[in-house]
Amino acid sequence: MSGEIAEAFARAKARGEGALVAYAMAGDPDLARSVDVFAACVEGGADILEIGVAFSDPIADGPVIQAASERALKAGSTLKRVLDEVVPAVRARCPQTPLVVMTYVNVVMALGEERYAKLARERGVSGTILPDLPPEESAGLREAFDKEGLELIPLCAPTTSPARAERIVKDARGFVYCVSVAGVTGMRSELPANLSERLEMVRRSSPVPVVAGFGISNAEQARVVGAHADGVVVGSAIVRAAQADGPAAARQVCAEIKRGLKR
Amino acid sequence: MDTQTAPGRFGRYGGRYVPETLVPALLELEQAYAEARKDPAFDEQVAQVLREFVGRETPLTPARRLTEKWGGAEVWLKREDLAHTGAHKINNTIGQVLLARRMGKKRVIAETGAGQHGVATATACALFGLTCEVYMGALDVERQALNVFRMKALGATVRPVESGSRTLKDAMNEAMRVWVSQVEDTYYVIGSAAGPHPYPTIVRDFQSVIGREIRTQSLVAFGKLPDAIIACIGGGSNAIGALHPFLGDASVRLVGVEAGGHGLDSGQHGASLTLGTEGVLHGSRSLVLQDEHGQIIEAHSISAGLDYPGVGPELAHMAKTGRMEVRTATDDEALAAFYMVSRTEGILPALESSHAFARAGELARELGKGKYLVINCSGRGDKDVATIAARGMPPAIQEKA
């Protein structure tokens, strides 16, 4: 599965599109039905799936994903169960789509860094995003991931200086996740004016594709941001649609974003 | 003596586990703090405000009737309850708000549990003319109505947090989320010796005024260092402040008392040093109350200030290396101690501090006559009287007292 993420970006590019990384919360509203949401996202055109694993104290997330996290925990979601039940089921229904797990460092530490890396690879996960693990703290975990060929996807923020961004992307695996706004996850009516310059700046030094996330919820935003990135991440808009109207609504959100990403 | 083994690390604990958006702000804070520490004028400014406004130094009071009652070591009380705003929390907020001002920040946010840190932050902000917003669990807003009013009277905005357990940990999550969104112009005053580097160090340094005063006051009062010092531990800011200056004094026993809540077997407590496991919460690696899947367990204590599932990383290191002894006191024991101290010494201790008093009698007897025990009375109990009165006075207390 190595290079699966790179292939997904290449396929989108060959079709003349930016890639859509679709986030949904595993276990929301329950483990089985969240699989339907992931599959619907792929039907809607998602190129990569980001599988959220709930944490009780999600300091990088806004209200929509925070609430989804609470629902998933109530439904019995754990990292182990997501790897055992959700990942294989999504993999079976969407065999072409790379899967990336997004959770918090404590959840991975509790399972064990090496055990997580091994299980994740066995079940078909290609990469992992940990929003509370800056590069200064990631050495041990990165070693465990590298051994299994699991890609640790780094984040850049609007507050990250150019010099720091260069250091961050130098060792990037999979893709670089550029946080578009100084803030938590969630839909925004406006994105910062200098976002395109920052994306281009990160892209110039990055050996892997660069995506923008946080705040993107419609086709127009995807079009504007997608012009300066290899793709976008959409989370809260999908989670909210799925909660309100089920998998079909999540598919619609993805399809709309995908329209915005056509070049 | 310093237990910091690498920048921001205390043995295995500490570090900086935060969203990338905050890392530059923490680097900026680390640098600004390092520069401030090198500047004698900053030190003098903090000392002056503590002297003129806070009322330092706080007394070291002989507790003659407790000494007699327990029949062991001579007992002395470090009276942080007499600091302005009624608790040790003000030592840290004065320092951090002066630091914020030095950094050119106009707006301050804070989280609070019992409300003491919120009141202390609101006070420092009022004193120096900064805007202040305090995040507080909705449950704590209900439990601590008096402190909510005090914060508002001081001009702060109090924002109730409805997520999770609606207590201190959720207030801290929310304050961090808000900080992520407004990091450019906002200073986050963390109230405990927890959080991402450099906060545990900053809070420890500002609170260490407690222990430094205990050192000099002991020498004057009884001609030697204490044989033991005991303090309550939630996040641990009063404990690290009282104990840290004695880390290198092998003759001084350092004792921390955690919230035993309904009992250690009940699953409802705040004993993260005693029963916690290694994890990452609120930006640092420490001992936390969590389930096997890494989900943080809601802590419980009768005291809103100890109702926290984590603990400062330096205290975790001190506990694991054995430099600090850790004990626990239940809700009921803390309540009994509250009445006992009130009636024996004429001091209403905060419910937090009552946990330290609850274990101090045994310690005094263990030490024996001719030894000296200092109890850190971290705050006054006025804020807790509604909580305590609502329970009714236990008959056992009425008889004993």
Q: Please list the strands of the largest sheet of chain B in the order they lie side by side.
A: 3-4-14-9-10-13
Number of strands of chain A: 9
The share of residues in extended strands of chain A comes to 5-15%
The largest pleated sheet of chain B is described as: 6 strands, mixed
The proportion of residues forming helix of chain B, as a percent range, comes to: 40-55%
Radius of gyration of chain B: 19 Å
Question: Distance between the terminal alpha carbons of chain B, to the nearest Å?
Answer: 43 Å
Q: H/E order of the elements of chain A?
A: HEHEHHEHHEHEEHEHEHEHH
The dominant shape of chain A is globular
In whole angstroms, the N-to-C terminal distance of chain A is: 28 Å
Instruction: List the quaternary state of the chains.
Output: heterodimer
Number of helix segments of chain B? 17
Q: Count the strands of chain B?
A: 14
Unreliable residue runs of chain B: none
Strand order of the largest sheet of chain A: 5-4-3-2-1-9-8-7-6
**Unreliable residue runs of chain A:** none
- Fraction of helical residues of chain A: 40-55%
Class by alpha and beta content of chain A: alpha/beta
Verbal overview:
The complex is a heterodimer of chains A (263) and B (401). Chain A has 263 residues and is α/β, with parallel strands linked by helices. Chain A is 50% helix and 13% strand. Chain A has helices spanning 4-14, 31-43, 63-74, 79-93, 105-111, 113-123, 139-148, 162-170, 195-205, 219-226, 236-245, 247-261, and strands at 19-25, 48-52, 99-102, 127-129, 151-152, 155-156, 176-179, 210-213, 231-234. Chain A has a 9-stranded parallel β-sheet. In chain B, strands 3-4-14-9-10-13 form a 6-stranded mixed β-sheet, with helices on both faces. Chain B is an alpha/beta fold. Chain B is built from 17 helices and 14 strands. In chain B, 45% of the residues lie in helices and 18% in strands. The mean pLDDT of chain B is 95.
